[in-house]
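Q: I'm writing up a methods section and want to include an example of the input and output format. Could you take the sequence below and give the corresponding predicted structure tokens, formatted cleanly so I can copy it straight into the document?
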Amino acid sequence: MEKEKDNDTSSAAAKSKSRAPRSRTAVFVVLGLIAMIVYAGSVALISLTLVPVWLPWTVAAIIAVATGLWGRKAMGRMCGISAMWLNYLIYVVIATGLFAFALLLANRLGAGECEPVQAEVTRVYSETRYHSKRVSSRRYIRGDPYKVYYIDVCLEGGINKPVSVNVNTFRKMRKGCYVELALRSGALGFKVIDSKGMHLVESKQPQKRSKR
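A: Here is the clean output for your methods example:
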């Protein structure tokens, strides 16, 4: 009986050990997906916000570094890594993207009323991207290609920003033409681009000069 109990105990321990690497792999996959989503979201929001590119990343990195002492402990419990410096590094990398995304999203969601502005189209272009195709539980390959369409517009202060457009709008656009879109004052003070209802205008309206 004792031998049977020992065998059961050893088999249970072996099963728990075999499950540990799988659960750790799952945690890394989830963390990797979170990092990809928040960094991609941050880049997309920055392109629609009139803010220096370095500013949200710098603020987010400062917050991530400041909270790293707490974050490395939480990361150690999730990942099962004993090296504190590695836990700290993983946390800072993920948290920087997360905080940047949160700041930019809060600024956009709390934006005020729209202010219509006219902007010159400085570039009309498309990019080819690829869908991801799942071939097994842990493997993805590049799938079918698809097109995304953009125009670059010159806004106040000579700032150039890319704006995503659909294929019908893309076909109407030409370099040097003017479009009317809206700017909204963000909750954190940074203006955001609202391209809903964007349309071509015949020519830029001349600025009113003050009478002397």
